[in-house]
Each structure stands twice: as C-alpha cells, then as structure tokens.
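Researcher: I'd like a candidate sequence for this fold, 115 residues long. If you have to choose between options at a position, lean toward the conservative one.
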C-alpha cells in the first residue's frame, strides 16, 4: 500500500514563495506520474502540474513560469516550488501519484495567499 504525506503549506503574502512536499512510502513503480491538484472553496479539484518518471512535465497556463515540480527519486519525494504567489493561488493542494495503474492521494495542504 502506498501512502502519500504532504507538507509545506501555509500563509504567505502575494509575491511570496512556498515549497510543497509529497513523500511516498510503500512499493512504488519506477514508472510513475506525480500530479499536483488544487481545490478552491466552491470549485472542483483541478490539475495544476504533472511530472512523469520519463521526464515529462507540464503546467497549466496560469502557473507556468511560477511553479516548478521536482523529484528526489532516492527519497520517493516530490516537490512543488511555488513562486510569485497570487491570491488566486489560494487553495488546498493535493499530490496524486499514479503507480502500477493505481492512483494514490495525499491528505492535502492549505495554501493561503493574502496580505
């Protein structure tokens, strides 16, 4: 059983930065895909960024140039570096790992961008 534990959320002023972490435990396929989603109040959960073990990364237009996914395969950990944060980035952020045709979710971490 794979478990994902997220950390790194918090309150930050507009223009600030945060780094979210997603640490996985359990048996993970070497072929996997990490996805970051976010959900704002009253809205559906939406995909923000994706990173595959084959090296493909992609971002939604509104975060391109500001958010960066990285991974530390040795630690089974993924990161979402978020820079130049805007109030509209406020949401609960979830990591989601696709491994061996299974989808696993982190518990979510709140990111609030406000002055």
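Model: Candidate sequence:
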């Amino acid at each position: 059983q794979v478990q994902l534990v997220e950390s790194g959320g918090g309150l930050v002023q507009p223009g600030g930065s945060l780094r979210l972490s997603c640490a996985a435990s359990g048996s993970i396929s070497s072929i996997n895909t990490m996805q970051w989603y976010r959900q704002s109040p009253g809205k559906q959960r939406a995909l923000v960024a994706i990173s595959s073990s084959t090296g493909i990364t992609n971002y939604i237009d509104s975060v391109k140039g500001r958010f960066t996914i990285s991974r530390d395969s040795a630690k089974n950990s993924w990161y979402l570096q978020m820079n130049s944060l805007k109030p509209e980035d406020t949401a609960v952020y979830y990591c989601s790992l696709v491994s061996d045709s299974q989808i696993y979710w982190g518990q979510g971490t709140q990111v609030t961008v406000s002055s």
